[in-house]
Specification:
By secondary structure, this protein is mainly alpha-helical. It is about 70% helix and about 0% strand.
Length: about 350
Amino acid sequence: MKLQSFYEWADERLGLADIAAFAKKKTVPLHKQSFWYYWGGISMFLFIVQCVTGVLLLMYYRPGPDAYESVRQITYEMNFGWLIRSVHSWAATLMIFAIFVHMFSAFFMKAYRKPREFGWWSGMILLGMTMVFGFSGYLLPMDDLAYFATKVGLEIPSAFPVIGPKLAEIVRGGPDVSEYTVHRFFALHVVILPAFFSMLLGFHLWLVQKHGNATPPCEEVKPLAQRRTVPFFPNFLMKDFAMWFVALNVLTVFAFLFPWDLGPQADVLKPAPPGIHPEWYFMSQFQVLKIIGQLIPGMAGEIFGIVLFTAGFVLWFLIPLYDTSTVRGLRARRATWFGLFVLAVLIVTTAWGYLAI
């Protein structure tokens, strides 16, 4: 009786009955490709893990000259500090992987078509912000690998004519990577990016609720009477939570069996260690730039590589304006082949980059 009274009290103020009615009315398409719908939820779950573990690390991390020492204390002296740091780092890697899977599944399901264009564009921006999350957080331990990888990464924008060197200097906070760079990356990682990411994520989720889940082209050609759906609440939601549990188990296995390493403290006077390379989600760009540098040496090769990446990103971002049909037309087939080409290039050049180390 007390529980019922509390529900009525809360419903009068929050409109819980309206929310429950919407959840019961919402449905999710059911077909052979329904598995790909879970990757958006997995990405969000890993972002939540990032937020929780990030707050715990924030209690002990000290940006600036003591950055490395604070991470060393977290890793080797704080109770379960190594585990929290390992979970945070592995969750970042798995989150980027999950977003990539989510992006390609949305692409091949044509989930960017009318009226979901803004869902595609907001998702692309979220992916870009997630990669900046990874890049900015990678420097914070200030070990030798983080230092030299960041130094190499910040040399790429320097290749932009006129504004490139000045832009890189602003990001670094000076002519080279230093404690000022750590301060700027720390502010970006824990304040600026989370604030904008959370707002854009809310907008993205609202669009998903507004337009629903897209159906793949093979389902769109079926008559409406033959299309199957499942209620979002509780059927799909329970399966979504089950996938969260699977993701948690995978994350736990990685965190325990492969704890995140901490190398020696960065020494700006020492040469870069052999085999320096970025994280896997930047490896494709890194390898392509190496190939272009061999074909077109010097600044011209760097500029050509940046122009190539920019053109490819613009084409990928604007694909909703090209593939506007609702059937399997010529543009739809071209878009699919374009997506397969991009996926193949990412996989091949990433593997090539690791084999070349």
